[in-house]
Write a structure and sequence with these properties.
Elements lengths: L5 H11 L3 H6 L10 H9 L6 H23 L20 H23 L4 H17 L10 H9 L3 H16 L21 E6 L3 E6 L5 E3 L3 E4 L17 H7 L4 E6 L11 H20 L4 E6 L1 H15 L5 E7 L17 H11 L4 E2 L1 H11 L1 H14 L8 H7 L4 E2 H13 L10 E2 L2 E2 L9 E6 L7 H5 L13 E6 L17 E4 L7 H6 L2 E4 L3 H10 L4 E3 L13 E2 L11
Parallel strand pairs: 4-5, 4-6, 6-7, 7-12, 12-13
Antiparallel strand pairs: 1-2, 1-17, 2-5, 3-16, 8-9, 10-11, 13-14, 14-15
Helix pairs in contact: 4-5, 5-6, 8-14, 10-11, 10-16, 12-16
């Protein structure tokens, strides 16, 4: 079965530009797509649709299609709601309205077919995903010949919109990705990643940044932030008004942060063990030494949370317990539910990666970017095809999308270990099943107050999966765990500063094993969850002491100003 990704969809879209006949297929009854070839394809992947279910779907569909056709004959404009077709241009002309309405009807029918498939759940999920990708790609909004907004723009601009669109498309083809923002508007260290600080250590894997205090006194226990290594750290330090880093510094914390290297061929042999030993554990020991504190506060975001949790379990096995608290934001420790990402992970795909880059090599950043874009193809692919290419509009500056386009590579051995042992086999949560850096990993040995955060609309780390960490950590003292649920998605839910007064969050001090029961008993609060986290950090930060006058110590001195060189290395 074919799995669609944005690059494949983009190539397919390019091939359709001159294929008017295939575009017209979407205005024919979708039952034309349910011939024997589709049934044969389903059989090949061990799936089928019962004749009764198929007959019911076809009957319901033909009734709706017949009504739509009758409306078209009498020039009655069909009623439909979909933000892709929100413009009056789609509703004011019968042909365009019928095009959109028939497409939406056909899409609903094909998705209903995907839902009716009888097969193992993983196969059904892949089929649903592939059908969704295909139907999204073939929207009439994606083609000049069927997009009335783009046509109006073409006439109004006397052809300039098309000329500009073609120019932008050719430029993106050179880059190998679709532009989602005006990248010339941002520069790392100039107007993103601008919190003042100093790089005080570096090795092959990371630079350690110590941020300059903004208060006269700071909590004695510093905060070490471990961001994900699959993208740049400055999602936590976009601009001053939405910077998690700056917020923590303003709250009186001595903040250190790991800035991961963007791997090149010199890191093609780096393993997961290296990221734990020479990455997270090294950073923990450095912060302890520089701050002269036996205990620090640990922080991990997304994969960074998985990394620091693994590091703490390894240290616990060695008899070390270096943190007084742990913060995990949108982090997976239990990989039972990996959401839509599960469609990309099976034995065949993992084995293929292991054979190609498992011992030596790199996973290109563009591959990761393509995967994540496919999860929200309408928002992150086709929206920009329509605006940038068909309408010739220039992308607007947006710091988060600039960061999103600034991808990173990953070492093949590290990535393959992570893929197999977490996403495929879910072994990390099983005590002593895995050995990392010479130690058996038991996450249950992490016995410290832990703040766990999940985002309610997160499609990368489903909030229920984030909640599952509360059933792994502090097994003998569950009361040390605290879970907070925020509104919005994987990134927007995290980057939600209090000053914006946006969104909401949920709290419930009663933690059970079932996340849905927790939510039923939770209280919703308006605004940002950051102040709740700040209270948690203050509780475990120790007494207030005089802020350090300069970064580092006698051994670890200033190398360069933050954000450092590593974060500026691009994978393009």
């Amino acid at each position: 079965m074919k799995t669609y990704d944005p690059q494949a969809m983009y190539s397919e879209w390019m091939s359709q530009l001159s294929n008017q006949g295939q575009l017209q297929d979407w205005m024919k009854p979708a039952t034309a797509f349910t011939d024997g070839s589709i049934m044969e394809t389903l059989k090949e992947v061990g799936a089928q649709i019962s004749p009764a279910a198929m007959s019911k779907l076809q009957s319901e569909y033909m009734q709706e299609f017949g009504k739509l056709w009758q409306d078209f004959i009498v020039s009655k404009v069909p009623d439909f709601t979909d933000r892709r077709f929100a413009s009056p241009d789609w509703h004011n002309h019968a042909m365009h309205a019928y095009s959109a309405a028939s497409y939406l009807l056909n899409t609903r029918f094909l998705m209903a077919m995907a839902e009716a498939v009888e097969a193992p759940e993983k196969t059904r999920q892949k089929i649903r995903f592939a059908v969704q990708q295909m139907t999204d790609a073939m929207s009439p909004a994606n083609f000049l010949v069927t997009n009335p907004e783009a046509q109006a723009k073409l006439i109004e601009s006397k052809g300039e919109s098309l000329a500009k669109g073609i120019s932008q498309m050719l430029a993106d083809m050179q880059k190998g990705r679709i532009s989602q923002t005006d990248e010339s508007a941002f520069e790392v260290g100039r107007n993103v990643a601008t919190s003042e600080g100093t790089v005080i250590f570096e090795n092959k894997l990371f630079q350690l940044i110590q941020y300059t205090p903004l208060t006269k006194t700071v909590h004695q226990r510093p905060l070490l932030m471990v961001p994900p290594c699959i993208n740049k750290f400055y999602i936590l330090d976009l601009q001053p008004e939405n910077s998690v880093v700056r917020y923590a510094v303003e709250q009186g914390h001595a903040v250190f942060l790991v800035s991961w290297a963007n791997p090149d061929e010199n890191m093609a042999d780096v393993s997961w063990d290296d990221y734990i030993e020479d990455g997270a554990i090294k950073a923990i020991h450095l912060v302890q030494e520089i701050s002269k504190q036996k205990e620090i506060n640990g922080f991990g975001f997304c994969v960074g949370g998985t990394i620091i949790s693994t590091a703490l379990a390894v240290l616990a096995a060695r008899g070390e317990h270096p943190v007084s608290s742990l913060t995990l934001l949108t982090t997976l420790l239990d990989f039972s539910d990996t959401g839509v990402l599960d469609v990309f992970v099976d034995e065949v795909q993992v084995s293929m990666r292991e054979q190609t880059i498992g011992k030596h090599g790199l996973l290109p950043g563009k591959d990761l970017a393509s995967t994540f874009s496919s999860l929200r193809a309408n928002d992150l692919v086709w929206n920009y095809v329509q605006s940038n290419y068909l309408k010739g509009e220039s992308p607007t500056p947006f710091d988060l999308l600039y960061w999103n386009a600034d991808s990173t590579n990953l070492p093949g051995p590290m990535f393959c270990w992570y893929l197999r042992n977490t996403y495929l086999e879910n072994s990390l949560k099983v005590a002593d099943k895995l050995h990392v850096a010479g130690a058996a990993v038991d996450l249950g040995k992490i016995d410290v107050p832990t703040f766990v955060y999940g985002s309610r609309e997160d499609h990368i780390v489903p909030w229920q999966a984030a909640y599952a960490s509360c059933n792994i950590l502090n097994r003998k003292s569950k009361g040390k765990n605290r879970f907070v649920l925020g509104a919005s998605g994987h990134i927007a839910g995290v980057v939600n500063p209090p000053a914006k007064k946006k969104r909401s969050y949920w709290t419930n001090d009663s933690l059970g094993t079932d996340p849905e029961s927790w939510l039923k008993g939770a209280t919703e609060h308006a605004g940002s969850w950051w102040p709740v986290w700040a209270g948690f950090l203050a509780e475990h930060g120790g007494k207030m002491i005089k802020a350090p006058g300069k970064p580092g110590n006698a051994e670890y001195q200033a190398i360069e100003p933050a954000p450092g060189r590593y974060v500026k290395v691009r994978a393009d």
